[in-house]
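Lab channel / #folding
Pinned by the channel admin:
"Please post every new chain as: sequence first, then the structure tokens as a reply. Keep commentary short and put observations after the output so the thread stays searchable."

First post following the new format, from NK:
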Amino acid sequence: MSTRPPAEVGMHLDDVDTPALLLDLDAFERNVAGLAQAVAGIGAGLRLRPHAKSHKCPVIALRQMAQGAVGVCCQKVSEAEAMVYGGVPDVLVSNEIVGTAKIARLVALAKQARVTVCADDAGNVATLSEAAATFGVRLPVLVEVNVGSDRCGVEPGEPPLALARQIAASPGLRFAGLQAYYGAAQHIREYAKRKEAIDAAAEKVRRTLDLLHQHELACEVISGAGTGTYTFEAGSGIWNELQAGSYIFMDADYLKNLKADGTPGGDFEPSLFVYATVMSRPTKDRAILDAGLKALSVDVGFPWVVGMQDVEYIRAADEHGRLTLHDPDRTLPLGQKLRLVPGHCDPTVNLHDWYVCYRNNRVEALWPITARGAVL
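Reply from TO:
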């Protein structure tokens, strides 16, 4: 059940209740258009399939598709259901789906939209085939290849070939290509080292593709890439589908990545903020916000306070965020509202029910975070 929105359309930003999840529409729209234009400019055959686990919102997914995206990625069946029921016609579940109930929901959803899934196990392929045949669908399946993250995925070379042949021969399934996402490379800080990681991944994918081609297995899709590395995958000549997701928001962790010139930042700008109120100022060097662990994720670091370099968020409790004021003369009274750039946007979004979308300091829209808590 959704909580009541912390704002109303037309309200001035100063009147929005907190904690709230703010979306700067101007910055968001620039980010969406920026990646769409970059992909279009690279050349024909390269597709954008943004990851919806970042935003969990069909409204955003449809805006991405309006700018040229072919569909979205999801990690869970419940996320895919939220997207399809919200009008998104093409979803890749870029993950392995295991278990009778989940697989039944997956193949049933494939009767309503184009749904693709990943696999890295022969037994799972057999189960997918049986369920797809029962529901009367032909389910596209990508073989996931471990290109460096050591998470899901078979090792490059012969193992993907064996799975691809099994999928191609399975009733109800269609071999659609490879999933080759290097998640661990996204936050390698140095530009040259990030590129080196993707170059190594590309060689693993290339070797696998050669084997598939030798056995006359067409590989329609090579999907992967993220916000931190998409330029490398796009320029490799290997990947033809990009899964970047966080680019629409950017977070404090992504903004620590270094560009080619050695400066931090990237091609995109922060658009997502946690809005918080100063609820206590017990000393000159300490202030307390009403946004703690239940309002933002600190798994990869604390948020940044927008426009106040001398104010640092240093600790999070359930309902409180502690600030250190490095300038004791800093004015920060009770009731003052601050914007925080979250350390990690994806799990922060999952803590909220609504995007409070604003432009020129006024609330323009409220978008429901439909797939919040979608973990099944």
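NK: The longest strand covers residues 272-283.
TO: also worth noting, The chain has two domains: 13-21+266-368, 45-250.
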